[in-house]
Design a protein that fits this description.
single chain, three-stranded antiparallel sheet, alpha+beta, 328 residues, five-stranded mixed sheet
């Protein structure tokens, strides 16, 4: 209704000058026919030949108005807007087009970076594997030291890949039944050089019958990161315990603990906190951030309870239909 009213108003505005002008001329001629003898015939001839011209002129203005409206419609303009508003809308459209072009370019560059990092990581894994094989030929003490460092490098590469793949994680999920004890055992075996190097023991209190419905690759990443954190922030000779209580997997250590002031921030990207500064100067603050992000996608609620100098427990709570325990 508003546009119809505006259309009528625009039509009247376009034709009003013609109607008033033509009416004024006719009025003058009528007055002249009354005052000047012989002008009546001139007025009749003017009226006969002038009205087609007036109609054509008015029709031309209406066609021009329709063309303008068509252009505005193609540019998504508001017909009821003022001239300055139309200019603003035109500039806004141009900026939107530039924004879309930039977003496409950023997406292209991001994909290229992702492909490069994937290639670089795989290229890096080849010499790492070779170095691990070489380390086996070294004397026991040197072999342990080299293997520990190579395992740490390998995990850092995995973290880099995880950070890159996180934005596309929904395209890389495959949920399946995973035996929890076997999965954690495999992770512990992979981290054996680090755990042995720090003299950290791992105790599993997990029934062999417990399974979880999850993505095995991303779940292994979560378990590996949490076990590695527990080992890095524990004194030599301590024990890490992995257990299950109802729908929650608990990973408990006897480490340094997390100060209460740091606990609300431990899942923030780049946060290292007191422990990072005091016990691990090479900490990136990405480990728990990535764990939190991945758990969110896997449908796992992750929380932490900790007491300084007594240890930390990470609670990984699965949805009721994703953790099957024959004991429950």
């Amino acid at each position: 209704m508003e546009r119809l009213k505006h259309l009528i108003g625009q039509t009247v505005t376009a034709l009003l000058p013609i109607i008033l002008g033509y009416g004024a001329v006719l009025g003058v001629l009528i007055i002249l026919t009354e005052l000047v003898p012989g002008t009546r015939q001139i007025a009749i001839l003017f009226f006969q030949f002038s009205w087609p011209v007036v109609i054509a002129w008015g029709g031309g203005r209406l066609v021009r108005l329709a063309q303008i409206r068509s252009r505005l419609r193609r540019h998504d303009y508001d017909f009821t807007a003022s001239f300055h508003d139309q200019l603003y809308l035109q500039e806004l459209k141009r900026l939107r087009q530039e924004k879309r072009a930039l977003e496409l370019e950023i997406g292209k560059l991001t994909d290229q970076r992702h492909e490069y990092l994937e290639l670089w990581a795989h290229e890096l894994k080849t010499p790492l594997t070779a170095l691990k094989l070489e380390a086996r030929q070294c004397p026991p003490q040197q072999r342990q030291r080299l293997t520990t460092q190579l395992t740490a490098v390998d995990h850092q590469v995995e973290m880099l890949l995880a950070a890159e793949r996180l934005r596309l994680i929904h395209n890389d999920l495959g949920f399946t039944e995973v035996n929890l004890r076997n999965s954690v055992t495999g992770t512990v075996r992979r981290l054996a050089p680090v755990l042995t190097g720090r003299d950290i023991a791992v105790t599993l209190d997990i029934s062999p019958t417990i399974t979880v419905l999850t993505d095995p690759t991303w779940w292994a990443f979560v378990a590996r990161q949490l076990l590695l954190n527990a080992a890095q922030y524990s004194s030599p000779g301590k024990t890490i315990t992995v257990s299950v209580h109802h729908q929650t997997v608990l990973i408990s250590d006897q480490g340094y603990g997390i100060p209460a002031a740091d606990q609300p921030q431990i899942f923030k990207e780049g946060f290292t906190g007191h422990n990072g500064r005091a016990h691990n100067p090479n900490a990136t603050g990405m480990g728990l951030y990535l764990v939190h992000q991945v758990c969110g996608v896997l449908g796992i609620k992750v929380t932490v309870s900790s007491v300084v100098n007594r240890g930390t427990t990470v609670h990984l709570t699965f949805a009721p239909n994703k953790l099957n325990n024959n004991k429950l």
